């Protein structure tokens, strides 16, 4: 009975309920503005809610978290600038939809699917938290490395232009991620003895530059074209649309929960992996991926919101953060006199059910705030380009600066903006660059940990791949996906099925 | 059509991030130079990566950088060789299709923004940037341009500086004194 | 233009008067936190500063500035004008920057406002490890050379200092050292069995120990802690540790060196009082930190002794890039 009371506490207490709503509302807008991150907002809230009781403080933070993960999709769809890293994949198909005047539909689908994914995540948290956290702990450095390799194979599906250029972009991204002082050995890498480079290149600066500024520069070519009129007749997707994508969204939500529960990986990787998964399993999309395929919205948005619930799993069961935001929440729980750790569930079971209840409430608020105000939001895209472009550029500059209070990040952002502008013109895909930057550390650090643990012995390393079922499964997945992307596979299929199959692949 | 090209051939200007621009079987103005620069850059990175730790150990901090730089070099050479073999796109020039005047002007304005941001401060720099760029592009009356530019700037400043306490470079504007003055005023009023 | 000029003049006037302690703080104070949001430094600073704000009667806007193992934040604060409007909220490692080749500045370019607290290192092992205490671990390592995996956090981090201490006293350890970004990720890996032993801060490991997800081998202090009485002190196994202990990471608030003395005094007063706030003391106690709350000459001498001991320990273990001697850091007298 206690659990039920704790679960509904947030709804029965008007003050807490209001705070969750307020937090979610604020979160949607924080998430939507590039440069304002949920991480930042939550850490500011720690000082702000310092003198409060723990429950209201947590309610507000959870609201902001839930809203923020969703909010990133807004600017990704409308302006092609992902408001948060987890919305990168959303921009791939969301922005083309907005360019066709279907921003309303895109936002509607995104909202409903985020709500759905959020629920799957919370459901897993509530019902299977200890199981999932045991599973997540089993991931060894070797498995994280295989996961990163799996991620890097996504280059194939993120670059619909020339595959060679895509691979180049992906490698470039990994290289960008390696710039600066190596955090494991403090060796300088790719710094060319320039002090500025030792600090490394901020991932957010690369993201805002490549997506935001380069897009704005490109739009300068069509400055006198009238803005796209947005159709807003259809916002809430029909029941049929939802039913049609139900199997896909269940799969991508599962990806989201697992990636979210792994310490060290979060919604950004989950969204990209889900996008790739969707591309792989969707046989006949109504529109091609990259041109505004609904599946390209469903997959990343279910996954990144499911990752929220996932991130709470190791936090609640082990006191281990699932991502940056839960890391700060752990700090907040300490400040409020709780000791997050494996004993929290035993010492303070009411806290667990309170957090689950709050997540549920936040998820409903997200649906509410997501489906209202769309008309107003889509008006942004109808602002004449002559005014919109300078504003996007200034927002990009402020956003890049705000992440780390660093003027250098602004220079990087501008540099990558210009670089990305040329890359777009010459057919180099930008998605793989961002993918490379996200995965760089995961791949590099865990490769080194794995090989050090095996005493630099490649034989032992490969032996280890088959000593644990988890590693074996991941390794087989890597091999299968790799083979399916190489020309060898296509040739083999042709030989077996005849030439008629060629157009299908 | 090149079987290796899996994109949408209609968009040569990079409509979205998943469908990059360019043509599969033709070369745009400047594309060859860009491919050359990428090759040279990759070679320099590979050399630099080798310098991190050489072939010291599989677990050295230079192992992954060297592997990625090698991949970059190989792919950029392939791209370069392919690009050399392509014909130029008829009717496109660098000045018209890649770097028209307005793009160059915005480059200059952005670089100016970046340079002035720290010494002069965010508020004056952003105001000047918005007013000039909006005036150039929209060609509306001065009062209208001023109103839109300053209004939107005030909104962004309020959100970032006041609500989220992001310390944007103050430069010559005594921001923190100003804010403290109002804080004291509000506190005095409350008492 | 006229408006800008006016603004500039009034800024100058205000800045000039702002330096007087009588009306300090006349504007917002920036607090630059050396480490990321959610880390121990961040938690400590965000929980003590609101109390200090109340006493000061001003606002401290706290910002996380990460990168370069904290060197970026340190250099940033050192470059601001020394008027007491920019505080550095940092941990112990800047004292190692010079010998590790990470930077040219350290706390000698600053004045300590308050050294708030210090942590205690503890050696923990995964529950499946085939040993239960420090002596058992040493014996196992001797019997199985090159098999035990120790977690590390890069040169100069707490694990490297603790390992250097063990090697100085017990002779070289033939173990595999697996690098992690920080003690959080390393302790997670310990629970998953990716590493066997990890030197960590008591506060980070205490909840895991209580739940039985990791076992304590030895507390690196001269006596047991009342927070964790089941963990034996390492000096019980080998009295030679008494020369180096107590040792531990610490947290402090600093301002640039030439800050007017009366401003420093006002800040020091505020933080000294804030650090006695019962809520804050309880929080620190819960996280296994030992309150220090020292300032002025006492803090300066603490910092220089700490730097002497640690840099020479690392130097003797061959982990430094430049000898402490080059920077005029004397070898600690025996």
UniProtKB/TrEMBL annotation, chain A:
Membrane-spanning parts: 16-36, 42-65, 107-132, 144-176, 196-218, 320-339, 351-374, 386-404, 410-440, 461-483
Q: Note the Pfam families from the entry.
A: TctA
Q: Which InterPro entries match?
A: DUF112_TM
Residue ranges of domain DUF112 in the record? 18-435
Give the source's domain of life in one word. Bacteria
UniProt keyword annotations, A-Z: Membrane, Transmembrane, Transmembrane helix
Instruction: Return the protein name.
Output: Tripartite tricarboxylate transporter permease
Record organism: Donghicola mangrovi
TrEMBL record, chain B:
List the residue ranges of the region (Disordered): 1-25
Pfam families according to UniProt: TctB
Q: Where is the composition biased (Basic and acidic residues)?
A: 1-15
List where the protein spans the membrane.
32-50, 62-86, 98-116, 122-138, 145-168
Give the record's keywords alphabetically.
Membrane, Transmembrane, Transmembrane helix
DUF1468 domain boundaries: 34-169
Which superkingdom is the protein from? Bacteria
Q: Where is the signal peptide?
A: none
What name does the UniProt record give this protein? Tripartite tricarboxylate transporter TctB family protein
Organism for this UniProt entry: Donghicola mangrovi
Show the taxonomic lineage: Bacteria, Pseudomonadati, Pseudomonadota, Alphaproteobacteria, Rhodobacterales
TrEMBL record, chain C:
Q: Which UniProt keywords apply?
A: Signal
Transmembrane recorded as keyword:
no
Q: Which residues form a coiled coil?
A: none
Pfam families found in the cross-reference section: TctC
Leader sequence range is 1-21
Which InterPro entries does the UniProt entry name for this protein? BUG, Bug_dom1
- Transmembrane ranges, per UniProt, are none
Q: Which domain of life is it from?
A: Bacteria
Kindly indicate whether the keyword Signal belongs to this entry.
yes
* Homology family: Belongs to the UPF0065 (bug) family.
What protein name does the entry list? Tripartite tricarboxylate transporter substrate binding protein
Tell me which species this is from: Donghicola mangrovi
List the taxonomic lineage: Bacteria, Pseudomonadati, Pseudomonadota, Alphaproteobacteria, Rhodobacterales
